[in-house]
Amino acid sequence: MKNTVTMPFVIQTADTFYKRFKGLMFRNEPIREEGLWIVPCNSVHMFFMSFPIDIVLLNEQKEVIRLIHSLKPWRATKPDKNAFSVLELPVGTIGDLCIRIGDTLEF
User: Fold this and answer.
1) What is the pLDDT along the chain (107 residues), one digit of tens a residue?
2) How far apart are CA 8 and CA 91, in angstroms?
3) N-term to C-term CA, the chain
4) What's the CA gap between 38 and 80, in Å, rounded?
5) Domain 4-106 has what CATH class?
């Protein structure tokens, strides 16, 4: 069943080359009650990260097309040709909000 899921916390936008490249790198503390929307983007890397995060790949309508639970530091995802953007969230958010493929996200 497809749902609309509203993010219950602030989502920052990374929409310039520098902001997309930097993302959440070099932060010491895990993110809590915040997220980062990287647009355009179809894959992520976790180089220079010190904590895992949940990854949600979205199409242009902000529909979920792929979910990655707890991506660990020093890992990377394969590019997804159908992804328009990526939402980086605190670890556990996908499960806590019951986000599913096909859902539409609001933030």
Assistant:
1) 679 999 999 999 999 999 998 989 889 899 999 999 999 999 999 999 999 999 999 999 999 999 999 999 999 999 999 999 999 999 999 999 999 999 999 99
2) 14
3) 20
4) 14
5) mainly beta
